[in-house]
Amino acid sequence: MKHELLQKLSEYVEFGKINQSSPYPPQMKGELGADELTRQLLDAGVEAQEILTSGLMPGMERIGLKFRANQVFVPQVLMSAKAMNAAMIHLKPYFASGAAKQKGTFIIGTVMGDLHDIGKNLVAMMVEGNGYKVIDLGTDVNSEKFITAVRENPDAVVGLSALLTTTMVNMEKITKEIKEAVPGTLVAIGGAPVNEDFCKKIGADAYSSDPQGVVEFLNSKVA
Amino acid sequence: MIREFNFKFDELVIDYKKIESILGYTSGQLPPPFNYYLEEALTEAKCLADIRGCYRVMDDPVILEKENKILINDEVFEVGKTLCKEMRGSERLAFFICTAGSVISQKSETLLHGDDPVLGYVYDVLGSSIVEAAGDRLQSILEQKVESKQEKITNRYSPGYCQWPVWDQHKLFSLFQGSTSGVSLTASALMTPVKSISGVIGIGKGVRYREYTCTLCSGKACIYRKIRDGMQIPLV
């Protein structure tokens, strides 16, 4: 029964079913949502860690894979993230008390000169939904802000985002300065104009064309 | 001379099909809650009073194709190869600024980072459509104006795209002597309100209008390219 409910929770996250009153998705109208089911699972004695790893994360992973395959667009991923957040409200006290643990810390920001943040936000949501603590520095972020955040969060991985060919060049400077200030820091990059070659050229550690790729990189290095 | 305009939402031609495509659905197929969200955003957008735009036509541009630059007065715009080519034959250049205004920009940002990112995204997409529609309107006004002189216009091009660096916006804005339709720049050349555009349009008897196609841009993961390629498969 527990496994069935965790499976159902993962579907609620995957399809963005937030709570019982939510009309979305149409095929789940009238059902419970991630909000109520998470509460029920906790009340039934299921550990927060298990709810995260066996309920929420598989749902986020599946929506991430669908997004990669162009089977869903941004709004559907945002609905999943919203369902995830509804569940996380119930789990946060367990993370705060140490009863449940996140995998690691991910610091993300859109590089200086660029204010596009939808892609960055998607990555942040997806990474958080896969069990990481996320520190979102926002847009137009310079090296200094990234370095300060890394110093405050040792072992955190940094994610740099840019949408414009004219601002992606700032990634090189920021990557270099982060690695000089805090040697060993891993830097992942993403955004429409960048690619694997550019990643290698600027000395970053990973490039991903979609949010799920960032999760996979983090899992390979941190988890 | 700087020409300034206030636009009403109802006089703009909003591309609803494109909005629905960006949201991941085919025309008329938006399910709840996206249809409600779009309806809510549209109702609010109809009351917007700060959709504005302006342009300034500058004579005698020097287009240096080998150097990928355009000279206007004493200002050098590092526009890049593609834009130099697109501006070929321009006898004058119209620099422009347009904004969907601070109301929708702030609403979108607040929701995106707050209670309802999905609704915030709908406002974001609508805000982008509004500012592009304002750009279309401005372009149309300019086109009508130059037609009387048997001149034509190019499409419009913006800093940040086609290798034209965003920091050139400081030079572009300086041409407007403070009359920038309420749009300001940060030190790193970002526009406030967020839902704003700026750029240039070529004018002349020998220029040609080309649709802004994906071949001009290197962004392979861009949502518009995905839509163009028919990749949007909506329903989860």
Give keywords.
heterodimer; A: 223 residues; five-stranded parallel beta sheet; 55% helix; globular; B: 236 residues; alpha+beta
Poorly predicted ranges of chain B: 232-236
Number of helices of chain B: 7
What best-fitting shape of chain B do the alpha-carbon axes yield? globular
Q: How big is the Rg of chain A?
A: 18 Å
Tell me, rounded to a whole number, the average pLDDT of chain A.
91
How much strand content do the residues of chain A show? 5-15%
Please tally the β strands of chain B and state the result.
10
User: Can you list the strand order of the major beta sheet of chain A?
Assistant: 2-1-3-4-5
Share in helix of chain B: 25-40%
Order of helices and strands of chain A: HHHHEHEHEHEHEH
Task: Give the mean pLDDT of chain B.
Answer: 88
H/E topology pattern of chain B = EHHEEEEHEHHEHEEEH
Q: What is the number of helices of chain A?
A: 9
Radius of gyration of chain B: 18 Å
Straight-line distance between termini of chain B:
52 Å
Quaternary structure annotation: heterodimer
What coarse outline of chain A follows from CA principal-axis ratios? Answer: globular
Walkthrough of the structure:
The complex is a heterodimer of chains A (223) and B (236). With 223 residues, chain A is an alpha/beta fold. Chain A is built from nine helices and five strands; from the N terminus they run H-H-H-H-E-H-E-H-E-H-E-H-E-H. In chain A, strand 1, helix 5 (118-129) and strand 2 form a beta-alpha-beta unit. In chain A, helix 1 runs antiparallel to helix 2, helix 2 (34-43) runs parallel beside helix 4 (74-97) and helix 6 (143-152) runs parallel beside helix 7 (169-181). The mean pLDDT of chain A is 91. Chain B has 236 residues and is an alpha+beta fold. Chain B contains seven helices and ten strands. Chain B has helices at 16-22, 34-45, 81-86, 102-112, 117-147, 169-174, 223-228; strands spanning 2-7, 51-59, 62-64, 69-72, 75-77, 92-99, 152-157, 184-185, 191-192, 196-204. In chain B, helix 2 (34-45) crosses helix 5. The longest helix of chain B is centred in the middle third of the chain and has 31 residues, at 117-147. Chain B is globular and about 55 Å long. Chain B starts with a strand and ends in an 8-residue tail after the last helix. Mean pLDDT of chain B is 88; it is low at 232-236. Classes of the chains: A alpha/beta (223), B alpha+beta (236). At the A-B interface, helix 4 and helix 5 of A face helix 5 of B.
